[in-house]
Design a protein that fits this description.
Layout (H helix, E strand, L loop, with lengths): L2 H6 L7 E4 L3 E5 L9 E5 L11 H21 L4 E5 L10 E6 L16 H14 L2
Antiparallel strand pairs: 1-2, 2-3, 3-5, 4-5
Helix pairs in contact: 2-3
Length: 130
């Protein structure tokens, strides 16, 4: 079982943003920028392009809704999207609020993010999710 499945199942706490019957979104605990969010399917699939077409399309649409909520809750120009997927064998999409392209640098993570600020961000984004 992946760490993301354990988060989805409530075994590991997270800063939850949104969920539906198929997908789950939560703040990355090693964010590259405040509001950095992960979108994952609720079932384990290692590689995003191994998802069937309908599920991949649905995941993208779910991520779009999350990105709109991030943009409403966090001052940014755009929300960047990337798929890396090497560190956890569970398909996921990274959504990162951007003021500049450097905000998407995965080598520059926020060290020791403040839990209270993470809670506030999660609540703000979650409140904008439709």
């Amino acid at each position: 079982m992946t760490i993301f499945s354990r988060i989805i199942n409530g075994e590991i706490p997270c800063y939850k943003i949104a969920e539906d019957d198929r997908f789950f979104a939560f703040l990355d605990i090693n964010p590259v920028n405040w509001g950095h969010t992960l979108v994952v399917p609720k079932h384990e699939e290692d590689y995003i392009f191994d998802l069937d077409d309908d599920e991949l399309a649905a995941m993208t649409l779910f991520a779009k809704r999350v990105a709109k909520a991030i943009k409403e809750a966090i001052p940014c120009k755009k929300v960047g999207v990337t798929v890396l997927g090497l560190e956890v064998p569970h398909a996921h999409i990274h959504l990162v609020p951007l003021k500049c392209e450097g905000d998407m640098d995965f080598h520059k993570k926020i060290s020791d993010p403040d839990p209270e600020k993470m809670k506030q961000i999660a609540a703000a984004v979650s409140s904008k999710f439709e």
